[in-house]
Amino acid sequence: MKKLKFGIIGTCCRGELGDYAHQTANGVEIVAGADIYEEQRRSFAERMKAKQAAVNIYADYREMIEKEKLDGVFITSPDFCHEEQACFALRHKTAVYLEKPIAISIEGADRILRTAKETRTHLMLGHNMRYMEFTNRMREIILSGMIGEVKAIWCRHFVSYGGDAYFRDWHADRRNTCSLLLQKGAHDIDIIHWLANSRSVKVNGIGSLSVYGSIPRRPAGCERLDTLTVQGVWSNSHWPPEAQKDYYPEVNNEDLNMINLQLANGVQACYLQCHFTPDTCRNYTVIGTRGRLENYGDYGKDCSIQVWTRRTDRFQLEGDMTYRMASPEDQPHGGADPKIVQGFIDLLRHGTPPESTPQGARYAVAAGVRGAESIRSGGMMLDIPALPDDLENYDFAALQ
C-alpha cells in the first residue's frame, strides 16, 4: 500500500477539511501546513498535536511545496488565491485537492485545468455536495427513470448565516470572489448540471445588494477578522439583519441573486439565492415528463425527498413516495467531507475517478461568472463559453 504525505494551504476554517486525511493506520499523513497568519498556524499545530502528528509549519506555501516532497496538497485558502496556488503546486508535480470554486474567473479556471493537463498531475475539486446523501438519492431516482426525462430543475437557496459568513469578511468584495454565485452558488450550479447530465450554455439574471449594502461597516484598514473574532461573530442571535453592524469595509456583492440557465441538452433551470432569510436550506425541484421530485432539507433526521408520479389537481405536501435520509446531522455537510477526502486518497492511490470533476467545477464557475455579468448589465442573456476540446475530453483521473 502506497504511503501518502499531504500538506494544507490555508490551515483553518475549511482547512480543517484536510484533517480527515490524517489516517496513520491507513498510511496517510498530514505532514505540513502553510498559512500567512500566525494564530492560524498555531491553531493548526495544536490540532495536529492532538492527533499525535508532527507537522512542519510554513508562512509561505511555496517553501512548503518546494521542501516537503508532498504527494498532495489541500488548497483551502480564500477564492482569489486558488489560481496562483494551484498552478504553483501542479507545476511542482504535487497533486492538488482544490476547494471550490476552482477560481474567480473563467480564464483562471481554464489555466488551472491547462496546467494540470500539461504537467500530467492529479487535480480534484472540492465539490462535496456530489458526496451528500440527498443529492445522490435524487440522482438515483432520476437515473431510474421514475420521473421520466428531466426537463426542468429549480433550486431555491436560503442562507440565514449570509451576514456572518459572507458580509463580515473578504467575501463581501467582488474583487475577491467575483460574485456569491461562485463562492456559495458554485455548489448548486454544479449539482444542477450533475442532475441534468449537461452544462449551461446560456444564462441571464437579476439581483441586488438589497440589505447588507446599508448596514454599518468597519473602517478601511480593518478588513481582517482574526480566527477568534470570526468564531465570536457567528451567532443565530444576529437577527434581524438590519439591526447588525461591523461589516466589511467594502460591500459590493449582491445578497440576492436569481439566474436562469439554458442547458445544452434542452433542460431549463433556475437558481435563486438569498442571504438574509431566517432559515437555511437548499431546496431542489426536478420535473420530468412522468413526475416531480423535491427535497426537504439537506441532511439529518428531518431531511427527505418527496416524489410525485400520479396526477392530482391539488397541492400535496407529501409525495406518492417518500425517501428518508440517514446522513448524520453532527458531521460537516452531512458526512460528505470525510467522503470527499477519501475520494482524493483513492484517486492518488488507485486512480479511482472522483465524483467531482475539474470540467464540472469549471462549468459551475463559468455559469456563475456569466450570471453575475448578466445581473450587472441589466439582465442580458449571455453565452457561456465551452472548454477547448482537449480539456473537455481530458481524463484528469487517468492522466492521459
Structural write-up:
The chain folds into 2 domains: 4-129 and 336-356, Rossmann fold, CATH 3.40.50; 140-334, Dihydrodipicolinate Reductase, domain 2, CATH 3.30.360. 45% of the residues are buried. The chain has helices spanning 38-50, 61-68, 82-91, 106-119, 133-144, 162-166, 174-177, 180-183, 185-196, 227-233, 336-350, 358-375, 389-392, and strands spanning 4-9, 28-34, 56-58, 72-75, 95-99, 123-126, 150-158, 200-208, 256-263, 268-274, 281-288, 292-296, 304-308, 321-324, 382-383. Helix 4 (106-119) packs antiparallel against helix 12 (358-375). With 400 residues, it is an alpha/beta fold. The longest helix has 18 residues, at 358-375.
Q: Helix and strand succession?
A: EEHEHEHEHEHEHHHHEHEEEEEEHHEH
The CATH topology of the largest domain is given as Dihydrodipicolinate Reductase, domain 2
What's the count of strands? 15
CATH architecture of the largest domain: 2-Layer Sandwich
What is the C-alpha radius of gyration, as a whole number of Å?
A: 21 Å
The CATH C-level name of the largest domain is Alpha Beta
- Tally the helices: 13
Q: Can you tell me the overall shape?
A: globular
**Biggest sheet, in brief?**
9 strands, mixed
CATH superfamily (homologous) name of the largest domain: Dihydrodipicolinate Reductase, domain 2
The proportion of strand residues reads 15-25%
Structural class comes to alpha/beta
* Average residue-wise pLDDT: 94
The domain tally reads 2
Strand order of the largest sheet: 14-13-12-11-7-10-9-8-15
User: How far apart are the termini?
Assistant: 23 Å
Poorly predicted runs are none
Which range best describes the helical content: under 10%, 10-25%, 25-40%, 40-55%, 55-70% or over 70%? 25-40%
